[in-house]
Amino acid sequence: MDNLNYGIIGNCRSSALISDKGSLDWCCLPQFDSPSAFAKLLDDKKGGSFEFIVDDTYAISQEYEDRTNILITTFNNGVDAFEVHDFMPRYHKKGQEYHNPPEIVRYLKHKFGRPSFRVRYNPKLEYAYGETTSFTKKNFIVSLTDSEKYDTIFLYTSFDQEKVLNGDELFLGLDGYFLISYNEKLLAPTLQKTYLELERTKVYWLDWSERTPSYKKFDKQILRSALTLKMLTYQKTGAVLAAATTSLPETIGEVRNWDYRFCWIRDASMVIKVMSELGHKNSAKRYLQFIIDLMPKKDEKLQIMYGINKEKKLTEITLEHLDGYHGSKPVRVGNAAYQQTQNDIYGILMDVIYEQLAKFGSDIENSEELWGITKGIVWIVAKHWQEPDKGIWEFREEDRHFTFSKILCWVAIDRAIKVAKIFKKTRKLNEWKELEEQIRLDIHENAWNEDVQAFTQSYGSYYLDASVLLMESYGFIDAKDPKFMSTVHAIDKDLNNNGLLYRYKNEDDFGLPSSSFTICTFWFINALFKIGEHDKAEEMFEQVLSYSNHLGLFSEDIHFETKRLLGNFPQAYSHLALIECAINFSRKQSEEKILESIS
C-alpha cells in the first residue's frame, strides 16, 4: 500500500518530496507555488522524477539526520553501501539574513564496497505541459521547455554528465553529488563546496532545534512536527503554507482535490501560535508583518487566504493533462475558496495578536498598526457577526450560521478587549464588553441543541461538528462545564470511528467522507484530556501516532478502514495539533512528578 511514504526537505523558499526509495517526485522551483519541475507524485508517467535505480540486492532505508531536515536514504546490499543526503541549503550568511537559494543538493556518501546505480533524471518543467528536453553543456546539464512557457533548470554533478543523462551504470568509490539549481551558477560547484553546504545547513537546523524546548514525553514527535512546520513557512514574506502539495485527494478516485500551497489566515495563525509557544519569536514577528501588509482598508473584509507573496487573486484552474495521484482527477492549481466569506478568521487572527502582545509586551514592533487592526476587526465583527458564512470547512453550498464561526466572533471581541487593556485604551471597553456578551448569549441560545445535548454544527442543526470542540481551547467555556462535557461525549458517540474522527457526518457538496480529517482527531484527544479522561486520550494519541508515515509525518486525512494517509502533505494543521496534544501530555507528566516529589 502506498502510504505517502515521503520525506520533505525545504529551506523556507521551496520544498521537495523524496520517496522512501530515494526518488524525487515533487518539487516546485523557484518557490513553493511555482509550476512543478518534478511531479511524478501527480502523474506516474508524465510528471517527471529524479531517481536512483539499484538492483534487487540493495535494501533501502530512510531517516532524517537527527534534529535536522536533512533526509538520508541508505542503499546497502551487505557488500556495497552508500547514502544520499538530500537537503535544500539554508543558513545564515554575512551581509544577508539567510542563504536559501532555489536549489536541491543530493550528496552521495560512500560507505563501503563499490556500490553501483543508475540515475533516471527526468525533469518535466511547467507542470509537465509540453516537452522538456535536456542537453549536456560544459559544466552542467540544462533542461528546458518552451512549448507553453519558457523555463529552464540546471543540474551540476561530480559524475559523468552523458552517463547520467543516458541512465548508464555509475560506480561510487568516493563521495559525489548532484545539485539541481533553478538558476545557472556563476561559480561552478565542487564536491568540497557542496559538502560545505551540507555541513552549514546541518548546523542551521541543529541550532534551530536547540532553540526548541525539550519535553519529557513525545519530545521526538514534537520536534519533528516543529521542524516540518518551519519548512512550511516562507521566509520572504512570513506566510505559512497549509501544505507543500496540490491535489492529493481526500479519497482516492474522488474529486476533493485542492491546492494547499497558499496561506490560510486560520491555519497560519494557529501554526504561529504554536511556534511562538515553542519560543520561535521571529516566525511570529514575520507573520504579523505579513498580516499588517495585507490588511485592507478599514471598511474592507480580510480574505480567508492569500498567496505566499500576498497575492489576493488565486484563480483556480484544472490541469487536464495530468492523471492525478493514483488516477484521482482533477489536478487543480489555484484555489477558488479565496472568494469565500468565513467569519471565524477575525477571531483566530485576534487571538494571535493578543498572544504575541501578552508574550512580548506592548513594545512589540508595529504596535500602532496592531491597535489599528484590532479596532478594525471589532468594527467588522460588530457589523457582520450575525451574518451566515461558509464555515471552517468551506462548504461550497449555501451559507449558514456555523457555531464555530460565531465562537470565533466572540473570541475576536474577547481578545480585542484584552489587547485594549494591554495598550491602556479603555474608551470603548464598555461598548465592546456589551458586544462580547451579546455574542456569547446568542451562541448559548442558538447553538445548543437540547435534544442532542450538545452544541451542534450550526444554529438549528442536529448535526455535530468536531470544530465545536475548540470552544474550550479558546476560552469560551470551561472544560468542566456540563454542556461542554456533554458535547464531547456526544461527538465521541457520533463522530468517533474506531479512534478516528469525522469532521461531520452530514453530506456536503461531495457526499459523506470516507477518511478522517487528522486535526479533528487531535482536537478530540485534547478535549478528552481537558475533561479529565487522560488515559483514554493518551491511548488514542498513541494509536494515531502509529498511523504516521515512516518518518513521523502526517497528511491531511487518514482513511478510516486502511489507515492510509490521504490529502495534501505534509499538513501544517495536523502537525500543529499533534504538538498541542503532545505538550499537554508532557506537562501532565511533569506535574505528576512534581506532586510525587512533594509528597
Automatic annotation (TrEMBL):
Q: Which UniProt keywords apply?
A: Hydrolase
One short Pfam name that applies is Glyco_hydro_15
Q: GO MF annotations for this entry?
A: hydrolase activity
Annotated GH15-like domain ranges read: 220-582
Family annotation (InterPro entries): 6-hairpin_glycosidase_sf (IPR008928), 6hp_glycosidase-like_sf (IPR012341), GH15-like (IPR011613), Trehalase-like_N (IPR045582)
What positions does the domain Trehalase-like N-terminal occupy?
Answer: 8-131
What is this protein identified as? Glycoside hydrolase family 15 protein
